[in-house]
Amino acid sequence: MMHSPLTSQFRTYNKRCMQRNPWRVVLILVLLALAMFAPLLLSGYSEWSKASAAHTYTEVARHYKAAAQRIPWRADLYELSGHAYYYAKEYSLADLAYQKAFQRNALSADGWVAWGDVLYLNGNPEGAARIWEDALKEQDPSEKLYSRLSQVYKEQRDYSRAAENLQKYVSLHRDDASAHYRLGLLLTLTDPNEALSELINASQLDPQLGPTVETLRSALNQASLTDSSSARFVLIGRGLGLVQEWELARVTFEYAVKADKENAEAWAWLGEAKQQASEDGAADLEQAYQLNPSSSTVRGLRGLYFQRTGNFREALKEYQAAARLDGENPAWQVSMGEMYLKLGDLIRALQAYQAATALAPDDSNTWRLLAIFCGQNNVNVKDIGIPAAQKLVLLTKDDASSLDVLGWLLLLDKRYEESERQLLHALALDPQNASVHLHLGMLYLESEKRDLAFSQFVNARDLGSMDAQAILNTYFP
Question: Which domain holds residue 450?
């Protein structure tokens, strides 16, 4: 190709310039690059600034994402975008944002935790577990990972790994009562002695856990006294059931059946645990009955099954059988009373409740049930209900709920001054007791003290009483 003399001279000139001042050319190139990219960078910082002024989490997330795309060295903004999407409950978008941060090595320890959280909340616990397991391999991982992995493994019924991770969490959070308690529950399956230690630690850190822990402690101590592994699991499972930990209770009953397939009570309790999980435990209860129809526990749990299904006559038969087999247990009389009531036989129901108090004269609960039965059904309120409530108050001392029962029955018997005295005493002991406010409102309404009645009904309603709301709608529209 032929070039003009002028072109050749220009190239020769450029070559000489490059040789004489190469930095000038570099500077020109840098200036050209800045001219091209400066608007992009400025818009990135503008988006970053807008994020702090946005009114919704979704807007915040979008601004952070846009900023991250335009400022290459601030990949951490992808994580901030993920956090904002997380708070907006847009979990799929949060997942994508965290992936971007991960791909650019900009994911923090808390970011790993949050990434797993959005997968978990989006219905992918297996994916969440994988993320959290990978996070543990990172330098300085978050200690929050252990509690989350424990929860996932528990849901997957991998209780040994759940306990292992929770132990690691507890070792770093020795003052976390809830963690000690949850660890104690898990260890009931594998190490009852260590479980007891963790549960006691939990109750010492949080006294409100005391009654629950005491129930479990009693079950674990009873279990330690038997040589039968199947019986031990049944006792532990019953304790877990009493504190409404039915998932773990079911596991222990499964262990009990596996240890001894002839253990009728283990089968019966397994059926009960399945019902608590809204599953049909009829087959397990039938197996229990076939193995040992002379077990009061088996018959009683079968009665409970029939009661739940609305077959009150069959339930009554089972409770009657249980009462014949275990005549000193007032619980069967109470259950019989409930079934007689369901069947409309108030006389036999009253007799059953009275029989329960005769079997356990120092048990406040049987007297409470008898008094409430009389009040709710307007049966022998004066001669049986009020004396039962007085016995209840005597046994429970200064207990607001007991005084409330007595005040209510006195109200039903139109002994207004005595009723008010008991109810005001109850209110002084427990000002937040909705039932006391309700009964005081009823008392004042019958006494034609409408202003006082209105005030008490409002208090009861505000404390959660639906009955109070219904009365307000009727009498104070």
Answer: 432-477
Task: Summarize pLDDT for 242-299 with one digit per residue, the tens.
Answer: 999 999 999 999 999 999 999 999 999 999 999 999 999 999 999 999 999 999 999 9
Q: Is residue 464 part of a domain?
A: yes
Number of Cβ within 10 Å of residue 26's Cβ equals 10
Report the C-alpha gap between 156 and 314 in whole angstroms: 37
CB 299 within 8 A of CB 318: yes
C-beta of residue 197 within 8 angstroms of C-beta of residue 209: no
Is position 448 within any domain?
yes
Cα separation, 383 vs 379, whole angstroms: 9
CA-to-CA distance for 221 and 230, rounded, in angstroms?
15
Among 127, 118, 116, smallest CA distance to 94 is for: 118
CA–CA distance, 427 with 139 (Å, rounded to integer)? 57
Total number of domains constituting the chain: 1
Distance in angstroms (rounded) separating the CA atoms of residues 477 and 474: 6
| Residue 43 counted as domain residue | no
Q: In whole angstroms, what is the distance from residue 472 CA to residue 477 CA?
A: 7
- The two structure tokens encoding residue 202: 């939990």
Task: Please check whether residue 171 lies inside any domain of the structure.
Answer: no
423 contact partners, CB below 8 Å, separation of at least 6: 403, 404, 407, 408, 411, 436, 439, 440, 443
Calculate the alpha carbon distances from 404 to 32, 280, 335, 431, 440 in Å: 86, 39, 24, 12, 9
Copy the structure tokens of residue 299.
């018959």
pLDDT at 418 over 50: yes
